[in-house]
Amino acid sequence: MTTNLRFSSLPKQFAKFNLGQYISVPWAVTIIYLLLILWLPIAALLFKSASLGLRGFWEIATTPIAISTYNVTFLTALAAGIINGVMGTLVAWVLVRYQFPGKKIVDAIVDLPFALPTSVAGLVLATLYSQTGWVGRFFTPFGIQIAFSRLGVFVAMVFISLPFIVRTLQPVLQELEEEAEEAAWSLGATEFQTFWRVIFPPLIPPILTGVALGFSRAVGEYGSVVLIASNIPFKDLIAPVLVFERLEQYDYSGATVIGAVLLFVSLILLLIINLLQQWGRRYAND
């Protein structure tokens, strides 16, 4: 009777709560997997950096060299994501709407940055864009140095983030109904009006998703950038390389603090991009 009274005194929503309907084998495996693979490493990084205290964390995180690496890393990654947002959309459009010889080969090559080891990519890019390389030699007479400069960091980030935009957009473009475009043309809309009012709105969410994925990948890139950049502080040194340099100096606290700042800023930027995605979906549905 005591037990019955105790349960009868609980609110109805708690009395009806059945824990078994939420805890199933797939649910438990998912939680354990995410815990081991994702949450524990992040927690360990935050715990290690927090052990320094707020003052110690702030002093390491705001050193001039650290701030310089944040500037190079985040701004260059954002620029690479935006450029690929435009060019990746164009590449996806051509691959979906055009038929040409060798299309399957071109489509497969887009995935090359996924499979190519980043160190190999850095070696190839450094060779191509050096002052005597196949591409870099055309910029040398104008005083433009690509390899071993911040511009080289940008090229490497564009290279490794391109497939994220293309592969995100392709399924959406394939599902777009061409009848809607033909209807717009039959009603007298110009090609620009058809693109802006019919084609572009549903593409906004996948474009922003691709930019977010490409930006995240570029922020964490190390292998290709370390080879194409000169890695000079206050010039083109990126934060992941600074983390590695701190580890080489056995400065584990400094490495974890910079890593925590990268994580925190990336989360904020991804949240902003997610908000933009939600706005894009509402804009597409209006």
Task: Write a brief caption for the model.
The chain has 286 residues and is mainly alpha-helical.
Description:
This protein is mainly α and 286 residues long. It has 14 helices and no strands. It has helices at 2-8, 12-15, 25-50, 53-61, 64-97, 103-109, 112-115, 118-128, 150-175, 178-186, 191-219, 223-228, 239-248, 252-285. Helix 3 (25-50) packs across helix 14, helix 9 (150-175) packs across helix 11 (191-219) and helix 10 runs antiparallel to helix 11 (191-219). Residues 1-8 have low confidence and may be disordered.
Contiguous runs where pLDDT drops below 50 for at least 5 residues: 1-8
- What's the β-strand tally? 0
Give the number of helices: 14
Largest sheet: none
Measured between the Cα atoms of the first and last residue, the distance is 58 Å
